[in-house]
Amino acid sequence: MPLRLPDRLPAIELLKQENIFVMDDTRAHSQDIRPLKIAILNLMPLKITTETDLIRLLSNTPLQLDISFMKLKSHTPKNTPIEHMMMFYRDFSEMRHEKYDGMIVTGAPVEQLKFEDVSYWDEIKDIFSWARTHVTSTLYICWAAQAGLYYHYNVPKYPLPMKMFGIFPQKILDPQLPIFRGFDDEFMMPHSRHTEVHREDILSNPDLTLLAESEDSGVSIVMARGGREFFITGHLEYSPNTLDNEYKRDKGIRDDVALPKNYYRNDDPDQGPKVTWRSHANLFYTNWVNYYVYQETPYNIEDIR
């Protein structure tokens, strides 16, 4: 089944060009199916790019997904047209009385600030608390992963001397878990961050399970509450050119950003990126939707607790 998306969402036409099957609300209403409701809190500056990246991965499930985009009332994005936000996004205050089978919280360009210094931290805390009783399973990505680990489990973040930037091999610690069904022993994950969480802090908390890590990039996936929460420090959702765009944007401007590792062919930006993470990214999101959302959520969505 395809994803059910708001009419005229830009991602629809972009993904159709990639032969990815999506449908808008008008067509979806003709199907008598209880779709899974997925909320996406998009904190990234380039909203349309992030929407498209996530929808591309979610589109591989055979289940029908009803995607809703959430925004913060306490923050106004500067890099996305206000018309787009008004047409496709709703404030958390408008959605807080609804329940969702799954939720994704993206990263945000605020990781070098203390959590309490982020202007919308109070609203983020409210959303994180709400998700525990209104969502069956939540994926927290990059800054959101660090923020979720800090808020829910008091796990601190630490600054890095240089940006963790590139594609890094990840070791699976429990290959029997459904989230890794179909995975190889090792998989690649893009990372783009200036801070990290430490392995020792994860292992010392009995409520957290370290699922994957890297000798180079450290902690990559943490699970809590039997899969009702996943914290991903990298960006499996990244498109092939995302790190290239970031590198060219920051080159010569920041002194803590180097050539992304394991990314360009022969480490030469002129030769373009070599994509090594896409198959496992698709598999991860498909497994999450199937095993931790679809098979765990109640048929009556109001029964989520």
Characterise the protein shown here:
The radius of gyration is 18 Å and the shape is globular. Helix content is 30%, strand content 26%. The longest helix has 17 residues, at 278-294. It has helices at residues 10-16, 25-28, 47-58, 82-88, 92-95, 121-134, 143-153, 199-203, 242-250, 278-294; strands at 3-5, 22-24, 36-41, 65-71, 89-91, 100-105, 135-141, 158-172, 186-196, 208-214, 218-224, 229-232. With 305 residues, the chain is of the alpha/beta class. Helix 1 (10-16) crosses helix 3. Strands 1, 2, 3, 4, 5, 6, 7, 8, 9, 10, 11 and 12 form a twelve-stranded mixed β-sheet that branches. The model is unreliable at 27-32 (pLDDT under 50). The protein has ten helices and twelve strands.
Structural class: alpha/beta
**What's the Cα radius of gyration?**
18 Å
Instruction: Say what oligomer this is.
Output: single chain
Strand content: 25-35%
Helix content: 25-40%
First-to-last CA distance: 27 Å
Quick one: overall form? globular
Number of DSSP helices?
10
The residue ranges in which pLDDT falls below 50 over 5 or more consecutive positions are 27-32
> What's the rounded overall pLDDT mean?
90
Give the beta-strand count: 12
Q: Characterize the largest beta sheet: strand count, sense, and whether it forms a barrel.
A: 12 strands, mixed
Order of helices and strands: EHEHEHEHEHEHEHEEHEEEHH
